[in-house]
């Protein structure tokens, strides 16, 4: 696998029917409202056929780290309420497949996402920072599971009072949040290296 290639398989489990979850995930232009931590802007460019196959959507997304991704996806397969598939192009290229499986009152959700990073920052630094970029994706998907559960609760709420009690979805991080963490990790790494040098130095004299 090339350094800039990534393969993620995410599993969520929510109390809902596959049809409920399918409807939410399929409505791409609604993503910034219920999953704002990741989806900053989404716009439909081409509607596709009567079933939405061939639909092209433009997206601006981010994760925990202070960079954004501009990309598009084209819908390639849709089997309500079991499966959605797409191909991605732009800052990364590849394919993604959502599957929804009923399990009693729950739905098991799997997202299989296989891509190559084309954004220069990711493409050039993946050989060194792949674990960091991977952690960024895992954070993004974790916020998605939280956001989806809250969106389902919001849709099922009967009264305005019930809706007001549902917490809002996680918000996007500011630039300060990851920089503070990365600064702390850099300082810790520097201290570890310095300590190792002090311990090993006598052996090199």
Provide an overview of this structure:
- The protein is α+β, with helices and mostly antiparallel strands and 205 residues long.
- The protein folds into 2 domains: 169 residues, 2-Layer Sandwich (Alpha-D-Glucose-1,6-Bisphosphate, Chain A, domain 4); 32 residues.
- It has 5 helices and 7 strands, in the order E-H-H-E-E-E-E-E-E-H-H-H.
- It has a 7-stranded antiparallel β-sheet with strand order 1-7-6-5-4-3-2.
- A hairpin with a 1-residue loop joins strand 5 and strand 6.
- The longest helix has 37 residues.
Brief digest:
The chain is of the alpha+beta class and 205 residues long. It is built from 5 helices and 7 strands; from the N terminus they run βααββββββααα.
Give descriptors for this structure.
seven-stranded antiparallel β-sheet; alpha+beta; Alpha-D-Glucose-1,6-Bisphosphate, Chain A, domain 4; globular
Topology diagram in text:
Blueprint: E1 5-14, H1 18-26, H2 31-34, E2 39-46, E3 56-62, E4 68-79, E5 83-90, E6 92-103, E7 106-117, H3 120-156, H4 160-164, H5 176-200
Antiparallel strand pairs: 1-7, 2-3, 3-4, 4-5, 5-6, 6-7
SSE order = EHHEEEEEEHHH
How would a crystallographer describe the biggest sheet?
7 strands, antiparallel
User: How many structural units, i.e. domains?
Assistant: 2
Provide the CATH top-level class of the largest domain.
Alpha Beta
Distance between the termini: 42 Å
Summing up helix and strand content along with how strands pair, one would put the structural category as alpha+beta
| Shape descriptor | globular
C-alpha Rg, in Å?
Answer: 20 Å
> Percent of residues in beta strands?
25-35%
Nearest-integer average pLDDT: 89
Number of strands: 7
CATH architecture of the largest domain: 2-Layer Sandwich
Strand order of the largest sheet: 1-7-6-5-4-3-2
What count of helical segments does DSSP give? 5
What CATH calls the topology of the largest domain is Alpha-D-Glucose-1,6-Bisphosphate, Chain A, domain 4
CATH superfamily of the largest domain: START domain
The helical percent reads 25-40%
């Amino acid at each position: 696998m090339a350094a800039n290639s990534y393969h993620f398989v995410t599993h969520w489990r929510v109390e809902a029917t596959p049809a409920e979850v399918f409807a939410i995930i399929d409505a791409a232009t609604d993503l910034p409202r219920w999953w704002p931590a990741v989806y900053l802007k989404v716009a439909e460019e081409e509607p596709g056929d009567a079933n939405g196959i061939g639909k092209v959507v433009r997206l601006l997304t981010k994760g925990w780290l202070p960079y954004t991704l501009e990309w598009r996806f084209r819908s390639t397969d849709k089997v309500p309420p079991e499966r959605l598939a797409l191909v991605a192009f732009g800052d990364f290229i590849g394919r993604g497949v959502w599957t929804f499986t009923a399990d009693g009152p729950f739905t098991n959700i799997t997202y299989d996402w296989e891509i190559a990073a084309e954004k220069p920052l990711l493409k050039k630094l993946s050989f060194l920072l792949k674990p960091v970029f991977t952690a960024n994706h895992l954070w993004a998907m974790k916020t998605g599971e939280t956001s989806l559960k809250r969106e389902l609760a919001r849709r099922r709420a009967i009264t305005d009072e019930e809706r007001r009690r549902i917490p809002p979805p996680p918000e996007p991080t500011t630039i300060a949040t990851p920089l503070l963490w990365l600064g702390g990790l850099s300082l810790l790494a520097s201290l570890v290296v310095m300590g190792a040098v002090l311990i090993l130095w006598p052996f090199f004299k």
